[in-house]
Amino acid sequence: MNLLRKAALAAMLALPGVGASAAVIDFSNASLGTHTGYVEDGFVFDKVRVVSASCANKSKQNCAAENAFRETTLTRLGGGGFTVNSLWFSIVSAASPMKLVGDKGSVTLAVGDMLGGVAIQMAKGYAADLSRNGVFQNIGFLKIVDLTLGDPGTGHFKGNLRFDDLDVTEVAPVPLPAAGGLMLAGMGGFAMLRRRKRL
């Protein structure tokens, strides 16, 4: 039994290295304008426009914006999975629903939709809790799409939305030594149970 306890203790000591790192992408240090390959806290947007109007936190001003029929894609720098826990958004134009797309599915938020028991209103800011939505857990990418209602180039139904404060967590793979330790501890436990039954 002492061997089993030692193996379990070794496995537990190996687990702290399995932790995932979290970040809040808030564009606070970004210059205004359009950025290709914008990087913050180990995450990268393929193309994002940073503005200072209609943003979540008036003390810092900056947030990201999408115009009609535009989208941006967030990935981890160097690849790998991540989880989107929450984000802040504002639909500046009623004709501009926001679609969040990951490799496991999508969610669309529009003026009039219910979010946490509250109806989304135009030009108001909302924090969307995505932590319980499996669609945004352990994903390889997140697209933020402006689904403007209307035809491109007509000048009608100009869309515009803002997003900010993306709370993301890197999904860390189990390191090989820890995985091996856990497997050995489990095998040792089964061996001890089997040996105990024989006695």
UniProtKB/TrEMBL annotation:
The chain crosses the membrane at residues 174-193. Residues 1-22 form the signal peptide. It comes from the Bacteria. InterPro entries: VPLPA-CTERM. Keywords: Membrane, Signal, Transmembrane, Transmembrane helix. NCBIfam families: VPLPA-CTERM (TIGR03370). This is VPLPA-CTERM protein sorting domain protein. It comes from Paracoccus haematequi. The lineage of its organism: Bacteria, Pseudomonadati, Pseudomonadota, Alphaproteobacteria, Rhodobacterales.
